[in-house]
Design brief:
Number of helices of chain B: 11
Distance between the termini of chain B: 42 Å
CATH class of the largest domain in chain B: Alpha Beta
Pfam families (chain B): ABC_tran, NIL
Radius of gyration of chain A: 20 Å
CATH architecture of the largest domain in chain B: 3-Layer(aba) Sandwich
Family (chain B): Belongs to the ABC transporter superfamily.
CATH topology of chain A: MetI-like fold
Number of helices of chain A: 10
Order of helices and strands of chain A: HHHHHHHHHH
Keywords (chain B): Amino-acid transport, ATP-binding, Cell membrane, Membrane, Nucleotide-binding, Translocase, Transport
Order of helices and strands of chain B: EEEHEEHEHHHEHEHEEHHEHEEHE
CATH architecture of chain A: Orthogonal Bundle
CATH class of chain A: Mainly Alpha
Oligomer: heterodimer
Helix content of chain A: over 70%
Strand content of chain B: 25-35%
Largest sheet of chain A: none
Number of strands of chain B: 14
GO biological process, one term (chain B): amino acid transport
Strand order of the largest sheet of chain B: 6-7-8-3-9-10
CATH topology of the largest domain in chain B: Rossmann fold
Shape of chain B: elongated
Largest interface: A-B, 21 and 29 residues
GO molecular function, one term (chain B): ATP hydrolysis activity
Number of domains of chain A: 1
Shape of chain A: elongated
């Protein structure tokens, strides 16, 4: 029956594409997590009346974050071509998509991280200070653990945005389910391939959402 | 032990400068429970934060055991803060950590190895009466239990001073008393100096040895709790004392007993310490040809002994009334003749 409904779908291609999509998503989520937390911390700590209060650094970070968040992803990939070529030695395939994916998603996640940190009870930070905690202790033992559920659910939202970014990156040859849907499906008018790819992506999104929700709930002891 | 000299905190805003704390000088003895009372906005919360420099003072000095806190570098201040415990109105526990891990937190900060931490934490859990709740998260505890965790956490590094910022203000009256009892027992057991910020006179009365009354950033009155209770000088102190026993100070009910008749006199008697337990009235009636009409009275226990007031109407010959008040005075009870109601 599946043969009848999806005559043009090659399962081997599908699994390869799925693997590529997952590969791009997972690596870029890790990159986004690291870069986003660093940027988010910088945004938060350099704010007025905070630990590293620094107006100059705060404005610079905010400007960078806002600019990269404003650029549409498809244009960002094009803009980053020279950088990608320099960094990865190629502009095709899943690896070539990574710099654009991370640079596109990290500023978005950074804002979510900043919001998560702002939600941490000021009194708890004050209590840590009153015990003689250093800034790095406050970051690693108060800010991060106390905002963990928000950091996780923010990362889930970002990961799902990244899945859709990988599909867009696919259109310009990054591989993955988006690439497959566009090249083999749309270009050849094989709508069954487009539909199959869509189903796969939706399933991946659901799985990410489920894992993110479960993790966030498990960590939240409030 | 703690010496505070000319401590001030100035907040600069666009339109005007606000003196949150204005030239406060206090001396606090070792092992003492020192209360600071004031209405909200009096600057008491800022004041307690100046002591461990959670807020930087604009002026003045804080000396703890001859260490000048105000002159310390950031690094040395951090070390010194480990010896200054602090508890908060809203407990400020880490929700992500269990009771055990919350209490272990200051030990982690101080760099105590985890094996040694264990003994200290278990000892503290025992001390504050939370045995069996080690693995609970703060969200599973009641307010009183949360404050017990806060207290255990503040004591973890064996501090010299405990700063309490409205520590009982978020608790119901019964729990407040439990926490106050715990603080007194810790004060006695560890000879710990405690500075207590509050807006409840009840707290001062129950556990403090000495008290300072703050208003608009200034200390308007300070001294032994009993003295301030018996003879509040400032308007603010008077209002706080009234807050404690509103009935006693409702003098308008006395109004109809106060007459121009010289054979009747309304007097207020102050009993302090052991005098409060004496049968003075019986004594007076036996000695003098006089009628005593008890109008109203109250007795309040404080850390330094009981303190009571009694309003009575004395009826008899004018000179007998004179003699009686004289006699009561010589027996050590203070007498205040009330002629008009204010």
């Amino acid at each position: 029956m599946l043969r009848e409904w999806f005559p043009n779908v090659n399962m081997e291609d599908m699994w390869t594409a799925t693997y590529e999509t997952l590969y791009m998503t997972i690596i870029s989520v890790i990159g986004t997590l690291i870069l986003g937390i660093i940027l988010g911390l910088l945004l938060f700590l350099t704010e007025k009346n905070n630990l590293w209060q620094n107006r100059f650094l705060n404005s610079i970070t905010a400007a960078v974050v806002n600019i990269f968040r404003a650029i549409p992803f498809i244009i960002l990939i094009l803009l980053l071509f020279p950088f990608t070529d320099f960094l990865m030695g190629t502009i095709r395939g899943p690896n070539a998509a990574l710099p654009a994916l991370i640079i596109g998603a990290a500023p978005f996640y950074a804002r979510l991280v900043e919001i998560a940190f702002k939600e941490v009870d000021k009194g708890v930070i004050e209590a840590a200070k009153s015990m003689g905690a250093k800034t790095h202790t406050i970051i690693f033992k108060v800010l991060l653990p106390e905002s963990m559920p928000a950091l996780i659910s923010g990362l889930t939202v970002t990961a799902i945005a990244l899945i859709s970014y990988t599909a867009m990156a696919g259109v310009i040859g990054a591989g993955g389910l988006g690439d497959l849907a566009y090249m083999k499906g749309f270009q050849r008018r094989d709508n069954d391939v487009v539909f199959a790819c869509t189903v796969f992506i939706v399933v991946i999104v659901f799985i990410f959402q489920f894992i993110g929700d479960a993790l966030s709930r498990k960590l939240d002891k409030r | 032990m703690i010496s505070i000299k000319g401590l001030s905190k100035l907040y600069k805003t666009k339109h005007q400068d606000v003196k949150a704390v204005d030239n406060v000088s206090l001396d606090i003895k070792k092992g003492e429970i020192y209360g600071v009372i004031g209405y909200s906005g009096a600057g008491k919360s800022t004041f307690i934060r100046l002591i461990n420099r959670l807020e930087e003072p604009s002026n003045g000095e804080v000396l703890i055991n001859d260490t000048n806190i105000t002159g310390l570098s950031v690094g040395k201040l951090r070390k010194e803060r480990q010896k200054i415990g602090m508890i908060f109105q809203h407990f400020n526990l880490l929700w992500s950590r269990t009771v055990y891990d919350n209490i272990a937190f200051p030990l982690e900060i101080a760099g105590v190895p985890s094996r040694e931490r264990r003994d200290t934490v278990l000892e503290l859990i025992e001390l504050v009466g939370l045995k069996g709740r080690e693995q609970a998260y703060p969200s599973q505890l009641s307010g009183g239990q949360k404050q017990r965790v806060g207290i255990a956490r503040a004591l973890a590094n064996d501090p010299d001073v405990l700063l309490c910022d409205e520590a009982t203000s978020a608790l119901d009256p019964e729990t407040t008393d439990d926490i106050l009892d715990l603080l007194v027992s810790i004060n006695e057991k560890l000879n710990l100096t405690i500075i207590m910020i509050t807006h409840e006179m009840h707290v001062i009365q129950k556990i403090c040895h000495r008290v300072a009354v703050m208003d608009q950033g200034k200390v308007v009155e300070h001294g032994d709790v009993l003295d301030v209770f018996v003879k509040p000088q400032s308007k603010t102190a008077k209002r706080f004392v009234q807050q404690l026993s509103p009935l006693e100070h409702k003098q308008d009910t006395l109004h109809r007993f106060i007459t121009k008749d010289e054979n009747s006199e309304v007097v207020k008697l102050h009993f302090i310490g052991n005098d409060a337990k004496r049968a003075l009235i019986t004594d007076v009636i036996k000695r003098f040809d006089i009628e005593v009409n008890i109008l109203q009275g109250s007795i309040s226990p404080t850390q330094e002994g009981a303190y009571g007031t009694l309003y009575v109407e004395l009826k008899g010959a004018a000179n007998t009334i004179q003699e009686t008040t004289q006699y009561i005075r010589t027996s050590g009870v203070e007498v205040e003749v009330i002629r008009d109601v204010t």
